[in-house]
Fold:
Amino acid sequence: MSAASTGEPMGKTVSAAYDAALEVIAAVEPRVAQATRQELADQRSSLKLIASENYASPAVLLTMGTWFSDKYAEGTVGHRFYAACQNVDTVEALAAEHARELFGAPYAYAQPHSGIDANLVAFWSILANRVETPALAEKGVRNVNELTEDDWETLRKRFGEQRLLGMSLDAGGHLTHGFRPNISGKMFHQQQYGTDPTTGLLDYDAVAAKAREFKPLVLVAGYSAYPRRVDFARMREIADEVGAVLMVDMAHFAGLVAGKVFTGDEDPVPHAHVVTTTTHKSLRGPRGGLVLAQEEFAADVDRGCPMVLGGPLSHVMAAKAVALAEARQPAFQTYAQAIADNAKALAEGFLTRDATLVTGGTDNHLVLLDVSSYGLTGRQAESALLEAGVVTNRNSVPRDPNGAWYTSGVRLGTPALTTRGFGPAEFDTVASMIVEVLSQTQPGTTKAGGPSKASYVLADGVADRVRARSAELLAANPLYPGLELG
Ligand SMILES: *Cc1c(COP(=O)(O)O)cnc(C)c1O
Structure:
């Protein structure tokens, strides 16, 4: 763990800050103060392999707890609909500047409250920027704020006719990439591309064929559960060939882009028209979102609030500025490389113990373990692992026979434990612990005596043994080592 990220050199100051804060909170609602203490204790004592989670630095966390939360600041830097936003301007401009510099992006928008919100901003900007009507073409008007009511009438109809092509959920895509229960699957006519049935890898020729046939306005690349890198240069070629806008959602792997593990064709920023991300996953910042865009889309992205966003969370934008400043430090590149090296070690640890991995391995920050070889559903595996103190989440595998609820997979990510200081040897041990649990878990039965997809039976003693091993690993790699609450 890089000391700068955890506050270790300022352990006393950080401890004093949290002690004071908890005392102030306890004076009003002691149960909240107590739950906050307990959350730290629980996070410290659990082996967190949830691929979308991390541990932000005390500097990032402390930045969120201030009076910036009290400000309204609708609008953009220097153009607010509220008075007295000069300090919000400062922190929002800093967050955007760090984001542009870090990612080499022409334009950055720091207001989205979350990843899903960032995607809504991106969808809006693409619709506003690209949907043509005869009247618009004739007037040469591109600014939707300058349209007449008649223009809007036509535009509204045209908005409802647009198409989006994204990666399917069971291949690792995200529900905001056109999945039906999400608004992206309602507001767009949507189709999905999957992965190759034998290799489990993205098949770019198949994506291109689908794009030629479907002719989407938006081609979405990016994923939440695909354990491989993506060739974004190739995705851009496909988008260009069919006249689509390439939108990349790097919510999961932004830290690997920031840390220069993904460069060249694997770096989405130079290739995509619009890039969205969360700031709290591998990027290790506060819970929030970010949009990066080519200049052409900047003005439409800027309308995010109030078009689809509520008032900006100024305290979180301030924390984004701090986190992005951290990510510009050389130590972050070391961290990002360690995330990828550790994922490789975790995958190797599984493969040498005969486990089945979707795509046969990983070259990013996550591993998708197919637990059907243990005769288990993802649900049973997730529950058995949790009983043994290993926190994962169940996840569909491509063409999953158990559907999205029970699933046949477990998704494991390395960003959080890498922050704690785990290296390849520790991740090999983690693989051995997971294999030990799963190979000694049996599916349970339903009340009627049939096979259950949810209940399970873990052999006696396994949970205790694995918990003890995990406690050793966690003690050797403490979370927030300088932070001691009184
Ligand atoms: C996590 C994630 C999101 C959603 O982020 P929230 O902050 O939970 O809204 C969007 N897209 C992808 C690809 C993600 O992995």
Q: What stands out?
A: The chain has a mean pLDDT of 95. The first helix runs from residue 3 to 6.
